[in-house]
Amino acid sequence: MTVPEIQASEVPDDAYLLDVREQVEWVSGHAPKAVHIPLGELQARVDEVPAGETVYVICRVGGRSYNAAAWLNHIGRQAVNVDGGMQAWDAARLPMVSETGHEPFVG
User: Fold this and answer.
1) What is the value of pTM for the model shown?
2) Which DSSP category does 25 fall into?
3) pLDDT digit string, tens, across residues 40-67
4) DSSP label at 92?
5) Can you give 48-67 as a three-state secondary structure string?
6) Distant-in-sequence, close-in-space partners of 66: CB < 8 Å, separation ≥ 6
7) How far is Cα 1 from Cα 38, in angstroms, rounded to an integer?
8) Cα 21 from Cα 105, distance rounded (Å)
9) Which of 39, 42, 57, 59 is catalytic?
10) Quick check: is 8 catalytic?
């Protein structure tokens, strides 16, 4: 199964952005409007992901988000992988926030 991909700079401003990284990664830096559901919790929490719109899935570099997007598409959702993940997001100088009190850091 092929998974649609998009560059971080092309993610629409009003997109439903699903961040599937672990909690420690999330608090260090994430997109301001992203929704956080770690990959390991996605199957149990899939009802929190809207079924009627495209979901843009992001992780650190793109591997976990690719797997999450593939699974979401497999169950009938519309999911797109953000190629390069938060590292590409950061490199594109897109907005990020941190919950640590420090500058956002992706690593």
Assistant:
1) 0.96
2) H
3) 999 999 999 999 999 999 999 999 999 9
4) T
5) HCCCCCCEEEECCCCHHHHH
6) 3, 5, 57, 81
7) 22
8) 13
9) 59
10) no
